[in-house]
Write a structure and sequence with these properties.
Layout (H helix, E strand, L loop, with lengths): L4 E10 L6 E11 L4 E5 L6 H8 L7 E6 L2 E2 L5 H11 E4 L11 H11 L4 H14 L15 H13 L5 E5 L7 H18 L2 E5 L3 H4 L4 E6 L2 E7 L4 H15 L8
Parallel strand pairs: 3-8, 3-9, 6-7, 7-8
Antiparallel strand pairs: 1-2, 1-4, 4-5, 9-10
The protein binds adenosine-5'-triphosphate and magnesium ion.
Magnesium ion binds next to α1.
């Protein structure tokens, strides 16, 4: 089977002549469907740029991104909107929930915009919030939830359209270590339950150790890759070693 994400010779430059910043340089990789992958690297190494390009928020200067067998470059505006809705969910560091809506309405929002029947929406919201352990928070407003609960609500909202890929940029960045490990366990549950491919940017070696694979960026280039052998603690140590080797921060935790 073809990989769900193929990145070929990806380069992204920012700025004008004379002051060009090379955020990504000739990056190549593939991710198979159902993988749980972390992207690590020092600040400014191009992680967010990479995530934004593969999730079609941004465009490359050079190179190709093929998602689910489709060249994203060839998609017209209307196709792109549909493509995003069907394939891609996105979670940010700051939860981005709407303050004046209940958690239920926040999660259901993408479905209500799609004209889906009310009972179908409620069923979907119930199913996801049970999996993420926030089904007893649905009538509350975002300010009444903890950071970890808010982030899990944001993940439910990103998943409500049943996307095939979930992108997350520093999703544990604003969470304490307990809430972070709960969120990471949820990502793993989501992948196991729905086969969703999860691609997560993180600074945190402990967070990355929940994944199957870690890709390391340095100065916009792919500079290393590690795969787990199933032992999270051993994987955590290998990730810390790689972070030390490549330079940059990998918060000691676990
Ligand atoms: N819109 C932009 N215009 C100009 N330069 C940019 C822009 N966005 C990012 N850059 C530059 O591209 C490089 C990569 O940035 P990026 O945001 O991808 O890094 P990152 O790895 O996500 O860093 P962090 O860990 O701090 O979030 C940096 O040098 C940054 O200054
Ligand atoms: Mg970033």
């Amino acid at each position: 089977m073809a990989p769900i994400i193929e990145v070929k010779n990806l380069t992204r430059l920012y700025g004008q002549q004379g002051a060009v910043c090379r955020a990504l340089h000739e990056v190549d990789f593939e991710i198979e469907a159902g993988a749980f992958v972390a992207v690590m690297g020092p600040s400014g190494s191009g992680k967010t740029t990479l995530l934004n390009i593969i999730s079609t928020i941004d465009k490359p200067t050079q190179g190709r991104v093929i998602i689910g067998g489709r060249e994203t470059e060839t998609l017209k505006e209307k196709e792109l909107a549909l493509f995003r809705r069907e394939l891609i969910g996105f979670v940010f560091q700051e939860f981005n929930l709407l303050d004046n809506m209940t958690i239920r309405d926040n999660i259901a929002l993408p479905l209500t915009l799609n004209n889906i029947k009310a009972e179908e929406i409620l069923r979907k919201v119930q199913e996801l919030t049970e999996l993420l352990g926030i089904d007893n928070q649905l009538d509350k407003y975002p300010y009444q939830l903890s950071g970890g609960q808010k982030q899990r609500a944001a993940v439910c909202r990103a998943l409500v359209n049943a996307p095939r890929i979930l992108f997350a940029d520093e999703p544990t960045g604003a969470l304490d270590s307990k809430a972070a490990s709960e969120l990471l366990a949820c990502f793993r549950d989501v992948r196991n339950q729905y086969g969703t491919t999860v691609v997560m940017v993180t600074h945190d070696a402990a967070a990355a150790s929940y994944c199957d694979r870690v890709m390391f960026l340095k100065d916009g280039m792919l500079s290393g890759k590690l795969e787990t052998n199933g032992n999270a603690e051993a994987f955590f140590k290998r990730i810390l070693n790689m972070v030390a080797l490549l330079g940059g921060e990998g918060h000691e935790r676990l």
